[in-house]
Amino acid sequence: MFAQQSILGRVVSQIVLAICVVILAAPLALIVRLSFGGEGWRNFVVIVGTTPFLRFLSNSLVIAVVTVALVLIMAMAAAYATSVLRPRGASLITVLVLAGLSMPAIALAVPVFSLVQTFGLFDTYWAVIIPLTALSIPFGVLVGGNYIRAIPVEIFEAAKLDGSGSFRTLVSIVVPICRPVLSVIAIFSFLAAWNEYLLPLLFLQDVDLKVVTQVPTYFQSQRLVDTPKVFAANVLISLPIVAVYLALQRTFRRGLTGGAVK
After folding, report:
1. How far is the C-alpha of 156 from the C-alpha of 166, rounded, in Å?
2. Hey, CA dihedral for 16, 20, 25, 26, is it positive or negative?
3. 3-class state of residue 205 by DSSP
4. What is the CATH number of domain 52-256?
5. Which 8-state DSSP code applies to residue 124?
6. What is the pLDDT of residue 245?
7. pLDDT at 260
C-alpha cells in the first residue's frame, strides 16, 4: 500500500496509523497499570488464591470450546448448503438466518429464559451454550458463505465427477480451503462466549458452574470497589483470548482479507 504512495502520502499514512495504535493501546496500557495498583503483583495472587478463579476459568473454557465447535459445524454446514447446494427456499433461509445479526441478545432474554425453564436446563452448561451458539451462527453463515462462494465452481464440478457426495465435498474440500475463515469464526465465537456475562448470571445459579467473567464481582460491594483487583481480574480473564488469537493469528489474518481463492 505504501509503495504506491508519494512521500507525503506515506508520512501522513504513518502518522494516522501511529495515532490509531496509540488510541487503541492506551486503554489497554491503563488497565494493566491499574491492575498493579494497591498491593501490586499480589493482586493477581489474591484473585487466584481467594476466589474460585480456576474453577470459573474451567467452566468458561468448557462453554467457550463447545460453543465454538457447534458454531463451526452448524455455520459451515448452513453456509455450504445455502451457497453451493442451494435447495428450494435457500434465499429465504439465508435472509432469516442473517436477520439474527440485527437481534440484540438482551431482547432475547425473556424468551430464552422461558425456553430454558421449559426444558429444565437451569444450572447446566447447555443453558448458556445453546443461546450463545444460536447468536453466533448468523455471523458464521455470513462470512463462511462469502468465502465459499469465492471458491471456483470447477472445484465442485471436479469433485462431482469423481463421485464425491455433498457431505464428502464439504469435509474433504470446502473445510480445508476455508481454514482461514474458520479461524475468523472461531475467534469471534470464542470471544463472544468467553466474555458473556448476562446469560451465565441468569441461568447458572450454582456457584460451581459460574464463569470467569463473574470473578470481578468478588471485589465489588455497595460501599467499596477494590479497583486494582477488579482490573487485575480483567487482565487474567483476557489472557486466554490473547492466547487463542496468537495461536490462530496467521490464518485469522488470511480469513479477514479472504474472499477469493487463487
Report:
1. 9
2. positive
3. coil
4. 1.10.3720.10
5. S
6. 83
7. 43
Cell 479497583, residue? 227
Could you give the CA distance from residue 20 to residue 5 in angstroms, rounded to a whole number?
19
Could you tell me the maximum CA-CA distance found in the chain, to the nearest angstrom? 71
Task: Please give the grid coordinates belonging to residue 116.
Answer: 430454558
User: What is the rounded distance in angstroms from the CA atom of residue 159 to the CA atom of residue 166?
Assistant: 9
Backbone angle region of 86, left / alpha / beta, with phi > 0 → left and psi within -120 to 50 → alpha: left
* Number of Cβ atoms within 10 Å of the Cβ of 191: 16
What would the grid cell of residue 189 be?
Answer: 465465537
Mark out the alpha helices in the chain (DSSP H runs).
Answer: 7-35, 42-50, 53-80, 90-98, 109-118, 126-149, 153-161, 166-169, 175-177, 179-195, 198-203, 227-256
Q: Pick the closest to residue 104 from 233, 198, 33, 27 (CA basis).
A: 198
Determine the length of the chain: 262
Query: How far apart, in whole angstroms, are the C-alpha atoms of residue 61 and residue 52?
Result: 14
In the chain, the N- to C-terminal Cα span, in Å, equals: 20
CB-based contacts of 233: which residues, under 8 Å, 6+ apart?
A: 47, 53, 215, 216, 218, 219
The answer to whether 234 and 212 have CB atoms below 8 angstroms apart is no
pLDDT of residue 261: 44
The three cell numbers of residue 126 are 447447555
CA atoms within 13 A on the CB side of 35: 21
- DSSP 8-state symbol, 225: B
Residue ranges for the chain with pLDDT beneath 50: 259-262
Report d(CA 210, CA 53) in Å as an integer: 10
d(CA 177, CA 171) in angstroms, rounded, equals 10
Asked whether the beta carbons of 12 and 212 are under 8 A apart, the reply is no
